[in-house]
Amino acid sequence: MASTSQASSGARTAHPDHLGHVIFIAAAAAMGGFLFGYDSSVINGAVEAIRDRYDVGSAVLAQVIAIALIGCAIGAATAGRIADRIGRIRCMQIAAILFTVSAVGSALPFALWDLAMWRVIGGFAIGMASVIGPAYIAEVSPPAYRGRLGSFQQAAIVIGIAVSQLVNWGLLNAAGGDQRGELMGLEAWQVMLGVMVIPAVLYGLLSFAIPESPRFLISVGKHERAKEILQEVEGKDVDFDARVAEIEHAMHREEKSSFKDLLGGSFFFKPIVWIGIGLSVFQQFVGINVAFYYSSTLWQSVGVDPTQSFFYSFTTSIINIVGTVIAMIFVDRIGRKPLALIGSVGMVIGLALEAWAFSFDLVDGKLPETQGWVALIAAHLFVLFFALSWGVVVWVFLGEMFPNRLRAAALGVAASAQWIANWAITASFPSLAEWNLSGTYVIYTIFAALSIPFVLKFVKETKGKALEEMG
Fold it and tell me: Could you say which of 31, 217, 267, 443 is the most buried, measured as most Cβ atoms within 10 Å of its Cβ?
């Protein structure tokens, strides 16, 4: 029998016999990421219609939009344990069912309270998908292809955002430009929320076409089935007994970090944990999710007609895809820290220009022409610089920066901070925008500017370092 190191080396260099099959498996799992993006941003098309139909103020409306994030936090916190108990595939199937139920319920609400409930259920599915997709892809990917296949999840999220905005725009046009216009016997906004049934069902069906994770199978003693799947994804030129032994050894060696391990230092947590929390909070406090949850409302508030505002939401999401691709190309070439700093500078410029444009009084219900164009270009610039930097880099940092003994628990705390910060921005925007739209963007600009000294002083480059070197 070959040694575990030999097996590992063989696995890293082997070209899978069925690389197309491996790509299909990763793409199927990444459908969870697509739904993550789709469900997160589809509400953008319904915000003003919900406000009008249920005659609610900004504060109540914001809670209905933001409440899904509570479900996200719960789903993300519990998905790992569920997946370890019943398997990755079963976990995906539960998420697919929750996405489907949420889509149907959100499309056919009796009242505002049950719409909020369906949003929480959808949020739970998003949280599950945000954890189980990357974990499963990492576990089934051949080591030589893991990085590229792992990027499927982030790519699927931004594609999901773009598709949701394109679908919303198409449905709004079909309804004559009225978010409450009749469409298929329902109001247009209801159809927008209900269309998610299609990718949710597809996700469920695809989960039956892909194999269980070899790592999970080994953890429950199904070694022979694990070997079969390893052969499917890693090719035949590998000693599979040695690969199984290697995986078992790695599982035994892993340290189960706990919340208690994170405590220490002068301010409750160890400094490295605070840096992770800081990265997560800055990522959200620049206001990025305003662009994906409220952009249609934002543009309509400065006089853009609904159809055009939906189109701008779509073009913004296309820019988001472009930026994400740029980040994926350069994150390993120029490093995480330089990319974060480039992104911060670009975001400051974009947000400051938006704040300037929104400071002008409306003329006949619209921004003056020059300010209108500046606001539109600056919004796209902001999303581009966020996507090519903080949108990707923060997740790379969080996966690499913590010492092995802290990684799992610290990542959990940092991810929770991200959901909480996301909720804070999402819940506060409608009321802040009513108070002073320009002032709101000044706040986001300040956070973008503060991220620059934060990165310079506290964040260490992780490019090219082994995970074992973090400490």
Answer: 31
